[in-house]
């Protein structure tokens, strides 16, 4: 399917690749470790868009793939507010800047966009790994000042117009806007189950989750990131919201280097 | 028979995640808008709408699951036994594996044999990891792989009608969820059949 979709990719596919940064390989402790609390997560090398996908980029996509225009996209894949901030199905209008991050986009639409570019959505661990970096450190999460900066964003009112992408400093990998602009979809948004390890306990929960749980929240001081996990796990794939966007990722071996 | 003809046309046109060319043929919320490839226990590749025209119960599982998945299968079988023979003949079941790496057609075939699954009406299937995520997204199933190779997943049954529109969900296993069962038998009513 990815191959078929890639056929519809744009001439600009190479430029798109050029805007990805290489991240990893590495290992780290996630806020939602696998298995044991202190389990180390291995991150194979991957590529991640330097910036979130913008209105302008997504408009190019919907122009080339009209089945994803808001007037055509089927309700299975998008809810009623999909791309609702654009003036029409084919124009952004005067109030929307092409360089603002795209919002009001569903997981299905975001997935289709990335696939059309021969890419995919990042997995949660990849996103979290890349987002742990500050300007100079791959993992800045133990720096209270840096954590406070991130939290300050959550404290700013959501009613202000979104700033343009690429206005903030590049992180360790040359990636921007992982924090401070919009929430972002991940490929496995529906994998972030949060439950205590209850495989030993039996009972009703054991029936709800086959091989149940084994997920717990760790690194409680990272509550900005934990808020993301909670938010993402509450979503359905057709949902769209006015502060949720995305960026794409790719395996390094898939594309040009 | 018209439905079968439409299905054949649709199959040929199934080339992208949302083949809008035939979107008008299907209700907007039909899960059959999702274009994914399922490989069944015989190794045959089909699209998600392989049973279009029938009411279908869908769920997700994995073959090496020790406890819940066998219960999931037997719950559906018990529900089937409560239907009349005519009703049962109309119903179809698709179980999609969340563990495509392990669940080859051979493994799925063994599961079918072990549980005496009626393969004229049931399909055990695998898909690429990307497609499995999409199917889970459509069915509202959450799953993740655990370090010990097992999978944590929600056991949800979904009932879709002849056009792939979701009519009921059930997270109640074991035991038969009355409202889910009512939805299945409701969908079999003659009035619905003539549609």
Task: Describe the model.
The complex is a heterodimer of chains A (257) and B (195). Chain A has 257 residues and is α+β, with helices and mostly antiparallel strands. Chain A has one domain. Chain A has eight helices and eight strands. In chain A, the strands form three sheets. Chain A has a three-stranded antiparallel β-sheet. In chain A, strands 2-3 form a two-stranded antiparallel ribbon. The N terminus of chain A is likely disordered. Chain B has one domain: 3-Layer(aba) Sandwich (Glutaredoxin), CATH 3.40.30.10. Chain B is 35% helix and 21% strand. Chain B has a seven-stranded mixed β-sheet, with helices on both faces. Chain B is globular.
Q: Quick summary of this structure?
A:
The complex is a heterodimer of chains A (257) and B (195). Chain A is of the alpha+beta class and 257 residues long.
Which second-level CATH architecture of chain B applies?
Answer: 3-Layer(aba) Sandwich
Number of helices of chain A: 8
Give the biggest beta sheet of chain B: 7 strands, mixed
Strand content of chain B: 15-25%
- β-strand amount of chain A: 5-15%
Biggest β-sheet description of chain A? 3 strands, antiparallel
CATH superfamily of chain B: Glutaredoxin
- Low-confidence regions of chain A: 1-17, 196-214
How would the global form of chain B be characterised? globular
- Shape label of chain A: globular
Radius of gyration of chain B: 16 Å
CATH topology of chain B: Glutaredoxin
């Amino acid at each position: 399917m990815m191959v078929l979709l890639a056929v519809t990719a744009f001439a600009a596919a190479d430029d798109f690749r050029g805007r990805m940064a290489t991240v990893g390989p590495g290992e780290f402790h996630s806020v939602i470790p696998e298995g044991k609390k202190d389990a180390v997560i291995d991150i194979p090398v991957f590529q991640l868009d330097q910036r979130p996908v913008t209105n302008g980029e997504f408009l190019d996509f919907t122009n080339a793939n009209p089945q994803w225009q808001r007037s055509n996209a089927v309700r299975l894949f998008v809810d009623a507010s999909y791309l609702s901030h654009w003036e029409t199905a084919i124009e952004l209008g005067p109030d929307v800047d092409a360089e603002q991050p795209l919002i009001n986009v569903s997981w299905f639409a975001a997935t289709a966009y990335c696939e059309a570019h021969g890419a995919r959505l990042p997995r949660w661990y990849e996103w979290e790994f890349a987002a742990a970096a500050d300007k100079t450190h791959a993992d800045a999460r133990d720096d209270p000042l840096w954590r406070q900066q991130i939290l300050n964003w959550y404290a700013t009112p959501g009613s202000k117009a979104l700033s343009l992408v690429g206005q903030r400093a590049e992180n360790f990998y040359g990636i921007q806007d992982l924090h401070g602009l919009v929430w972002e979809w991940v490929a496995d948004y529906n994998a972030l189950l949060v439950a205590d390890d209850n495989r030993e306990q039996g009972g009703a929960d054991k029936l709800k989750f086959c091989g149940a749980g084994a997920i717990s929240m760790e690194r409680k001081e990272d509550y900005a990131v934990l808020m993301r996990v909670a938010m993402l796990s509450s979503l359905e794939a057709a949902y769209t919201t006015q502060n949720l966007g995305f960026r794409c990722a790719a395996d390094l071996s898939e594309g040009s280097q | 028979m018209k439905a079968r003809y439409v299905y054949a046309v649709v199959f040929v046109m199934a080339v992208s995640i949302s083949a809008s060319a035939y979107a008008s043929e299907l209700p907007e919320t039909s899960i059959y808008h999702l274009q994914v490839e399922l490989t069944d226990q015989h190794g045959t590749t089909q699209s998600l709408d392989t049973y279009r025209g029938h009411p279908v119960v869908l769920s997700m599982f994995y073959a090496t699951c020790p406890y819940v998945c066998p219960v999931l299968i037997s719950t559906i079988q018990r529900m089937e036994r409560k239907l009349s023979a005519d009703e049962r003949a109309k119903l179809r079941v698709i179980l999609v594996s969340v563990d495509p790496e392990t669940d080859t057609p051979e493994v799925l075939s063994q599961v079918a044999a072990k549980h005496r699954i009626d393969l004229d009406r049931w399909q055990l299937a695998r898909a690429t990891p990307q497609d499995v995520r999409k199917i889970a997204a459509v069915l509202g199933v959450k799953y993740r792989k655990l370090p010990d190779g097992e999978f944590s997943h929600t056991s949800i049954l979904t009932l879709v009608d002849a056009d792939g529109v979701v009519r009921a969900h059930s997270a109640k296993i074991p035991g038969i969820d009355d409202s889910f069962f009512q939805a299945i038998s409701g969908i079999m009513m003659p009035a619905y059949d003539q549609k």
